[in-house]
Amino acid sequence: MNMRRATIRDVAETAGVGVATVSRVLSGGSASPETRERVLTVAAQLDYRPSALGRNLRQRRSGGIGLLLPDITDTFYGRVADGVLACARSAGEPVIVGTTGDDPEREAELIGMLMEQGVDRLVAIPSGDGESWAPTLRAGLTTVFAHRTSAGCGDIPAVLADDRAGVRTAVDYLTGLGHRRIAYLGGPGQAQRLAVFREAMGPLVDEELIVVARGSRDSAYAAAAGLFQHRPDLTAVLAGGNLLGEAAVLAARELDLRLPRDMSLIMFDDVPWAELCSPSLTVIAQPAQDIGYRAAELVLRGGGRRPRGVLLPTELIVRGSCAARGTSRSPR
Amino acid sequence: MNMRRATIRDVAETAGVGVATVSRVLSGGSASPETRERVLTVAAQLDYRPSALGRNLRQRRSGGIGLLLPDITDTFYGRVADGVLACARSAGEPVIVGTTGDDPEREAELIGMLMEQGVDRLVAIPSGDGESWAPTLRAGLTTVFAHRTSAGCGDIPAVLADDRAGVRTAVDYLTGLGHRRIAYLGGPGQAQRLAVFREAMGPLVDEELIVVARGSRDSAYAAAAGLFQHRPDLTAVLAGGNLLGEAAVLAARELDLRLPRDMSLIMFDDVPWAELCSPSLTVIAQPAQDIGYRAAELVLRGGGRRPRGVLLPTELIVRGSCAARGTSRSPR
DNA sequence: CTGAAAGCGCTAACAG
DNA sequence: CTGTTAGCGCTTTCAG
C-alpha cells in the first residue's frame, strides 16, 4: 500500500528514454515534441513529482528563502511575513521562518541553521549590526533587508517605509497643533527613525523626552510609564511602533492622562485596533505587506543589478488621538 | 576569498580517518576516545558544518517541519506559529510556513510543495475535510492538527483548546446575567465550537441568531452588521474569534449600539487590544502559544504511541463588555 | 573500532 | 536531439 514515490528513473524507463531527457523536458529544456509529450504523459500517469532533495544536493543549494523577523506575534511583522509568503508562493518557493527576538546572537544562530539547510536567499528584519552580518554576507547569502537596515550594511538592498517622510509628517502635524514638548517612544533597531525625529524637531528636541524600549511589551510599558511620570510637561508623543503605541495608551490610562485632552498621541503603524481604541488613534500607516512582498521579489530576482533597495510611502491617518495644545496640562 | 564550505571528506582527510568515522563521531556513534577527540578538533578548526542537503537526500527526507495556517496576519494564528517556532528552535529544526487562507485547495497545493521538499512532519490548522486530507495521510506525513480538527480525521492527533468548556462557561455566564437571546458569530472551520454552543444553549437556541462568516474581515463585519440589524431582540453575542469580535465591536458602534448597555459581548481569544477597547472586552482566553508548542512537540516525537491529542484549558476573563440584562434594549 | 563502498534523486557536461 | 556518466555530501551496511 505504501508505494515509494516515483523517481526520475522510473519515468525514464517507463517512457523508454534517458533520465537526462526527462530532466530536460521537465525543466523546459529542448526536446522533440513527441518525446516531450511522451515524457509528460508518463510523468502524469506515474504522478511523478521531482524530489527537491536530489536537486538541492546536486545544485548545492536548497531553493527556498529564509525569513528572519523579530517577533511573529507582532501584527506588523506578521503582515510583512504575509507579504513574503505571498510572493514566495507565487514563485513556488518554500519559506523557512525564524524569529530572532531582536537578539543578534539568536539571529546568527538562525542564519547558521539556514546555511546548514542550504538556504542561500534571505529576507531579514535585521537585529545585528554590520559586524554581526559580515560573515553571513561573506558566505554568499543573497540578502535583502526589510523594514529597517543595519548600521554598516549600506550595500545590502533594503525595502523600507519612508520613515523620514513619516516622522516629518507626524512632527509637522503635531507642531502645527501647537505642540512643542513632543516625546519620542522608540523600540530597538530604529536608530534611523530616531535620527530623523531629532532632525525634524530641530531646536525643539529635548533628549529627555526620548526613550527607547527593548522589544517586549513589558519593556515598552515601563518606558512609556516612566516617560509620562517623569516628564509631566510633555504634551504629545510619537510612538515608534504599534507595541509602543499600545504601551502608551495603557500607561496613559493608568496615570489617568486623557487622550487627546492631556496628551496627543501618534503611533507608527496602522493596526486594526487603532480604530477600536477610544479615542481612535491617529497613525502613520506603513505598507507592511508590500514591504514583505517587495523584499521577497528582490531576493528572488537574485543578486541582479539592483544595487539599492526601495522606499515605500507612508501615510498619516488622522483619527481622534491628537488635539490642539490647549491650556497647559493639569498638574499632577 | 570565497572558500567552499568544508565537507565531511575534508575533515576525514585532515584527521586521517575515514568519512564514516567522522559521520559516526558527529552523530554520537561509537568511536575510540582519541579518534573522537581528533575528529572533533579538526571539525572545529575547519569550521565544519554538516550539510543538511547530503543528509536529507540520503535519508530521503528533509528534517524540518511544515506549518500550515489560515492567516499569519491574525494574531491568534501568529501566537500559535510562535509556539511552533519556539519548540522547533529548541530542537534545531527548521520550519517551513505556508498560509492557506482557509482554502482547502490552496492547502492541498502547499502540502504538495512540502512533500516535494521532503518534509514529512506537519503541524496544521486544517481547512480541508477528511476527504481532502486522506491523500496526505496515506502518503505518510506525520501530522498533528492544532486549534481545530477536521471532520473525518478523528485519528489524527490534535492539540485543542477546550472549546466545550469555553463555550459552556461563556453561555453560563451570559445566562447568569439574565440573557436569553444570545447570538453566536462564528468563523470557518469551527463546526465543533458551534455544535457546543447549540448544546450549551439547549432550549434557548435560536438558529436565526447563529451566523457564520468566511475568514475575511469584510465578511466578518458583514455578518455582524447583518445580525445586529435583523435581530434587534438579541441582548448578547458570543464572537467565535478575535476577528469576529473586532467586527462585532465595529458593527455595534456603527449601529449605535452601546456595549454593554445595549448588548453584551464575549469574544473568543484574548488579544492585547481587548483591554484597550472601551469598554474593555470580556473574553475566553485560549493558550495559543501552548497549542503551537505542544503540537510541535507531538509531531517531533514522531508517530509514537500517543494516539489522541491534547486538550488545553480556556479561561473566562471578565472585563467590561457584559452587563446584566436590564430593561429591554431601546427600540431602533 | 574503523574504512571502503554503495547509493539517495537529480542535473550538467560530454559524447554520440 | 538524446543517452551515458559523473558526481553533489552524507549515512549505512559490510568487511576487516
UniProtKB/TrEMBL annotation, chains A, B:
GO terms for molecular function: DNA binding. Residues 6-59 form the HTH lacI-type domain. The keyword Transcription regulation applies. It holds the Pfam family LacI. This is LacI family DNA-binding transcriptional regulator. It comes from Streptosporangium longisporum. It comes from the Bacteria. Keywords: DNA-binding, Repressor, Transcription, Transcription regulation. InterPro entries: HTH_LacI, LacI/GalR-like_sensor, Lambda_DNA-bd_dom_sf, Peripla_BP_I.
